[in-house]
Write a structure and sequence with these properties.
single chain; about 500 residues; alpha/beta; 4-stranded parallel beta sheet; about 75% helix; elongated
């Protein structure tokens, strides 16, 4: 088996060994190739393998090359007699070359180093320099030769194929094979000797164990006889159980048929359910489309309602502003009413005081008339007193009392009527305001109920109706006030 890096002359070396061109020299070998030939009454088999990348190539060796090198060893069944590691004499050999050679040779197996021989090509390039000096010049190359147990050979490319250099190489290969075989047989001899010693010791131990085993065998025989008897009983029981098993198998067969029928029924129900699911899916699709249409309509309605809500909010805000103004007017009117009530109270007090003064004046006048009458009666004789004059004075006194009493009643009636008129005047603005607000609310409700009309038209009509209702209530109240004033005396 020939191995080595690329472009070192592996295929040429194979042709030199076989004495003819069995390998394509000058071309890159892509896979392992096996060739045979007869050399000096020997049948030689040579396997050429692809070369790995040398130190001048920065790329790693492809995995396919590693596989081909491993498979090349299998072509030399059971194993190669020699592995020729090809190295050029006219090139340097560095640590990189050594590490790559070691890595690739380890792919072949652990025993490769006992079969490896370093084959130097281009030996004519050394000239007068001995190969040993060339090996000592490169420590990495010295390591490789030592690893191969100092086995190496030189090929001169100027020599023809075959010849003495090939014969010497084959002799070195035979020496390697014999050396490996002798080492192998010597190793086997010592292993056999050690095994014999172990066998002698083990035979004695085995003899003792055999005696023990014979005793154990007697016991085992008795135990076996007992067990055979038990086995016979067990066989009888098994026969009964076999009958039961047959019955169970028949039952299981019937159950399997029932299960098959159930499965068929399940398949039919499954198909019907699938059809129902398809129909429901269609119905759901229709419902979804309908829902989308209804949703769109609802969104449109919501938008319209929001617009109406916005318009009504504006109207309500305007009404709130008006109500606030009315409240302000109410507050001003209440202040005026307070002032008027204060003036009325002052007038009533003044009238009451005037009435008291008039009563006092009438009382004084009555006292003066009585005093004057008493003076007349006391100074004049009885027959000279004019009865007609006395009667006249008494009538005047009664008239004066009656007039004073009527004046008091008329003043009380006037004060009560003025108080009722004031109360009605205070209630009238509230009635007016309440009527206006009630009319506006009723108008707004009427406008919202009128669906055929638009929101703005309905609201306008409702407001107009509310204003008309408020104005009618106000006119009614003013007519009532005018009637009260006409009924009151001057």
């Amino acid at each position: 088996m020939i191995v080595g890096p690329r472009l070192v002359g592996k295929s040429s070396s194979g042709n030199s060994i076989l004495g003819k061109k069995n390998f394509e020299a000058g071309h890159t070998t892509s896979h392992s190739v096996k060739r045979q030939g007869d050399i000096t009454v020997r049948q030689v088999t040579v396997v050429d393998t692809p070369g790995w990348h040398g130190r001048y190539c920065t790329e790693d060796t492809p995995e396919i090359v590693r596989i081909e090198i491993t498979q090349g060893a299998s072509l030399c069944a059971p194993e190669p007699h020699a592995v020729l590691v090809v190295v050029r004499c006219d090139e340097t050999f560095t640590e990189t070359d050594r590490s790559r050679a070691e890595e690739k040779l380890n792919l072949i197996g652990r025993s490769v180093w006992s079969q490896a021989i370093v084959l130097f090509t281009w030996g004519d390039k050394l000239g007068d320099t001995a190969i040993e000096l060339h090996i000592e010049r490169w420590p990495a190359l010295q390591w490789l030769v030592d690893k191969c147990s100092n086995r190496y050979h030189v090929f001169d490319n100027t020599c023809p194929a075959g010849g003495p250099q090939v014969t010497e190489l084959l002799e070195k290969i035979e020496e390697t094979v014999v050396g490996n075989d002798s080492e192998h047989w010597l190793k086997m001899y010592w292993e056999l000797r050690e095994s014999n010693k172990k066998l002698t010791k083990s035979s004695e131990e085995i003899g003792r164990r055999l005696e023990e085993e014979e005793r154990k065998n007697d016991k085992l025989k008795r135990m076996i006889e007992e067990k055979e008897r038990k086995v016979e009983e067990i066989d009888k029981r098994h026969e009964k159980k076999d009958g039961m098993l047959k019955e169970m198998e028949q039952r299981n067969t019937m159950r399997e048929k029932e299960i098959e029928d159930i499965r068929m029924e399940y398949e039919r129900e499954k198909e019907s359910l699938k059809q129902m699911c398809v129909e429901k899916d269609r119905a759901l699709d229709q419902m979804e489309r309908k829902h989308e249409r209804e949703s769109k309509e609802l969104r449109d309605k919501i938008e319209n309602l929001e617009k109406r809500k916005f318009e009504r909010e504006e109207e309500l805000n305007a009404m709130i502003v008006e109500i606030q103004e009315l409240q302000e007017n109410k507050q001003r009117y209440e202040m005026k009413e307070v002032k008027i009530s204060m003036l009325e109270n002052n007038v009533a007090e003044f009238k009451q005081q005037n009435k008291v003064r008039e009563d006092m004046i009438n009382h004084v006048k009555m006292k003066e008339d009585r005093i004057q009458l008493h003076r007349v009666e006391s100074t004049a004789p009885a027959d000279m007193v004019d009865n007609s004059y006395l009667k006249t004075q008494n009538r005047n006194l009664r008239k004066t009392q009656m007039l004073s009493q009527k004046d008091g009643e008329r003043q009380r009636d006037t004060a009560g009527r003025e108080q009722r008129v004031g109360d009605e005047q205070r209630e009238t603005p509230w009635l007016k305001v309440g009527a206006a607000v009630l009319g506006a609310v009723v108008g707004a409700m009427a406008g919202s109920v009128r669906a055929p009309l638009s929101a703005a038209t309905g609201t306008t009509i409702g407001a107009a109706a509310g204003i008309l209702l408020g104005s009618l209530l106000i006119q009614k109240e003013e007519a009532r006030e005018n009637k009260v004033e006409s009924d009151s005396p001057d």
